[in-house]
Amino acid sequence: MIFTSPPAIELFRHCFLHALRAAKFIGPKKLADLLAWKHSGFHIHDSGEKPVPAHDSDGRKRLAEYLLRHPFSLQKITWNETTKTVIYRSKRHHTLVREAPKNTPAVARARRISAMRLALMPGA
Are 17 and 31 a contacting pair, CB within 8 Å? Predict the structure, then answer.
């Protein structure tokens, strides 16, 4: 089930983005840009399951592990220092050898955002 209540989604969106700004993960211009998006991409999905109670440490751990997983493989992104762009490769090539991602600005940022997700969990 996806909650489509605009007030609930907007409240979550604003709280989350302002928390990122307060933690200095994004600047004031980026915050304003993200809040200006007509289609924010924020959705609250409960998969038909009940909320995880605060006393359920195993359930909270499973939820945290799920939230911390990256939405795409970090092995598929690289940072091009010359062009200041992130390069994403969606398909593996059988002759291309890939290394684990270095601690590039993009990888470090993804790790900080993942840590922020965990910190924003109620009762964490």
Answer: yes
Compute φ and ψ for 88, nearest 5 degrees: -115, 125
For the cut 50, the answer to whether the pLDDT of residue 100 exceeds it is yes
- 27: its two tokens: 């600047």
List beta partners, residue 44.
Answer: 3
The pTM for the full model equals 0.38
Q: What is the DSSP letter of 22?
A: H
With a CB cutoff of 8 Å and minimum separation 6, the contacts of 19 are: 116, 120
Contact by Cβ (8 Å): 51, 62: no
- pLDDT band at 28; cut points 50, 70, 90: very high
- Residue 121: pLDDT band (50, 70, 90) is low
Q: Domain residue spans in the chain? A: 1-49, 71-124
Residue 44 backbone dihedrals phi, psi, to 5 degrees: -110, 120
Residue 78 CB coordination number (10 Å) = 19
